[in-house]
Predict the structure.
Amino acid sequence: MNISTVLTKRSVVGGLVILILLIIFITLPLYAPAYTVILLTAIFMYIVLTVSWALFSGPTGYMSLAPAAFFGVGIYTAAILGMKLPLIVVIVCGGFFSFFLALLVGALTLRLRGIYFAIFTFGLVMLIAYLLLFWELHVTGTRGRFVIAVGHNTVYYIMYGNLVILLIVAVFVRRSKFGLALRSIGENEDAAAHTGVNVTLVKIVTFAISAFFIGTAGAVMATRWTYIDPFIAFNPLFSFMPVLMAIFGGTGQLWGPIIGAAIFAYLEEFLITRFPYYYMLIFGIILVIAILYMPKGLVGLIQKWRKGGGVV
Amino acid sequence: MKYTKYVICIIVLVAFALFPIACLAESKKEKNSIVFGAARPLSGPLAIYEETAFGPIYKMWIDEINEKGGIYVEEYGKKLPIETIIYDDKSDMGTMTRLLEKLMLEDKVDFVFPPASTAFLFAAGAVANRHGYILMGAEGGATTITDMLPAMPYFFGVLNYSDHNQMPALADLYEEWGVKKVAIIFIEDLHGIEYSGVATREFGKRGIEIALVKSTPPDIKDVSPILKEAKALNVDAFCSFTYPDTGFLVTGQSIELGFNPKAIVFGPGGNFAVYKKIFGKDVVEGVLAYGAWNYKSSPAAKEFYEKFISRYPEDILDWWGHLPYYAGLQCLEQAIEKAGTLNQKKVRDVLATEKFDTVLGETWFDMFGDGGGLLAVECYAGQIGQWQNGVFEVVGPKEKATAKAIYPKPPWPTK
Amino acid sequence: MIMKIVDVLICGLLLGGIYALIAVGLSLQYGVARVLNISHGELIMLGAFGTWSLYTFFDINPLISLVICGPVLFLAGFALHKTLFKSLLKSSGSIGAFEGSSLLACFGLLFIIQNIAITSWGADIKGYSYLSVPVNLGGAIFAANRLVTLAFAVGIGITFYLFLARTRLGKAIRAAAQDPAAAGLMGVNINHVLALCFGFGALMAGFAGVLLSMCYPVKATMGLEYTIIAIIVVVLGGLGSIPGSFIGGFILGIIGSIVSYIEPSLSLAAYYIIFILLLLVKPTGIMGK
């Protein structure tokens, strides 16, 4: 058996698994209980947030804490436009508003590196929340907003579609020259610039693409939330969650953030419903143990197992 | 060796996957209890609500029902005790709405308790109506809900709020005392905007001048500039429509700055027993807060008070919400018994049309057409309270008062 | 008018002193030990709760609590670094990886500490009155407890600055901050120094908690709010720089005070505006290199 047949076999198996998963998830609302669909929507949302985050921050090493800002923009778009426009238009708008915000932020933060970039983006989340509050208070006089409700199956399919498109984009980015450029920025930004990579353009565009998907996720989820105000929409939790989920899964591979987010979100659901009074304690202990024993995330652990299995 | 790892992996995955199925299996038992479900903030910034507001009330109510053997439901021909399923919503809106749907769709609970805070209550109201579940409210209430109520037949608001009827009662007191000039600060959210708005309107009607209105963000750490300005304006009354953190800060800094208006309102925050505990009985003397009830309001209120303090530390008493929350649960209990069923629609119709005997006395809901309802204004034990000699006395409206109001408020004691 | 300006400035200094104190600990932990300690606020909360408990149950003066809560938290921080962060440092290949994994670990700590605090103290508001009396400074009135807090904050800051600048251990810490590898070659026991540094960070958090509890109510979920302020101040002032933390704290305090005076609803938005503008002009903070 030569290497190429092994590879083909592998990719055929991989392709089959993906196809089966796609079909299972498409047909799921037909036979699964309603709450399974709702829970999966939430898990998909976390996967979208995490994969989008990892799309930019994974290869470049820039830790963005802006997801909550983009997510909140999506939510607010749904709250403001939801009653006037068709759902799909609202969601795409949510994505584009986030996209443009990300272009602006990206252009502003070019000089910032490392922790300064992270905290800047976090400050941005808080600033938007406070300014929005000020605006609603003194200009529009709004006191919280009801968001138009949508059936859970519709929300599920939209979130699912969002996720599938995001994954296709992510695979494309990883495999293309674009992805190579991103990784070279992560390794050494100055060197990348010298070799002719348009560092600025690559960074900003990727940042904006990742923001687009977070924004659409926010616009979709808002319809499940029903009622929002600035601090509910711009909740810093949604900046930290994707980072933690991605580190938990491991950022080296595309599927690291995916399984990281899925397991993290499911584990959390399990704990808040089964051990509600000790959820934080158990979750905290799991986080500490996880990072102690799998410093490279789940991906690192699985890769180690594979190697170990081969030797034994 | 190679395979054990995969086996462990598979076992863990299967265990996880079985968890929702296990939940389903549980809910298909024979009916011998009434299951109440709730997504409450056990962690996060709203956890204080579960600790001191509705949390202690529903736990006490459940224990009392279960001591009696349960609620008699004719449909089953027996008394059914109450069981609960409580989840932690992490003080997050998305989690709360999702878990509420889990309770309704997957756990198929018989009734739900409300989540904490006005915004969460409104969101839960929309979810509950979508699934045809009664939502007997607790913490939270605001004028905006009256626009939504006609379309929310299953929503029952329990807590009194700004124009229902606290600010008119406060303005009446001010008018009677001859207050001429008022300063207002309010927290920048639904609660603060609404209270300052309604107060401004009510004060205006009575010819009281509003010399200063300032809003504060939720995490403000220093309010002394506002207090100094109010002091310079020499206002008769100061209203702080803020949450406990800010209210306690305002109290502390007012003392420190020697800011002594003749009337001072702190709410929500001033209505909690912990307010007296932190600052001491001499400091809080004469401070007003909205609420309100007192153990002197009625024999039933006294009995409730004694039950409460025999079970919980007195510090967590809330002289605003605790009595109405409990009354709401009593209404629900009696409505279930009268309807003789756990059917939401039938119980809802009893709630909408009947009158009940609760700790508030005769209690009923003012209905909004075919929509939801609010606890009738006449039922409340009071709207405005004042700390007098370490007791939170009802002072407004007049006919509900348990003591004569003190005006002007004595200056802060100087140690 | 001048009176008013002075008044607003002093208010800002009082607030800034508190912010600086919150930030110094985090500055050490991130600037030297490279741990972005998101659970910093939880340590502050523990200090505040410890003080509250000692005051309420044993009638111990909050200022005496400084020498009780501070050292206890120092030991806790030291032990944490010796166990958890040391092994994380070993297993992470690079500083970048260590920053990521220690952030995750700190999040875990945040969850654990907050849950323990909620179960042992409850989630409700606690507080006590200590020194909440007016002090008249040439016509303007200020609170005694805030003046004491500012005095202690500046005192602690200067002491610690001198400690870093003058003592052998302080020099070792600074060397470790600048170039861990070279410091190791020079015979500095890096792990030990980093653990001490983390411990000092926790000590500062404890001090901040003790002093804060005199001015603000205490609750189990208050931590994150203070962590966020601390991070902003640290980044504003420059990582690992104690004078930077004080400058950052005072800037935020004074600006907050001025904005509060004009339009209180923008006071917190102003922090972020200043912070964002400053980073755009000087991307490594005021005292950063």
Remarks:
- Chain B touches chain A through 45 residues (CB under 8 Å).
- Residues 26-161+309-379 of chain B form a domain with the Rossmann fold fold (CATH 3.40.50.2300).
- The longest strand of chain B covers residues 209-216.
- The two ends of chain B are 75 Å apart (CA to CA).
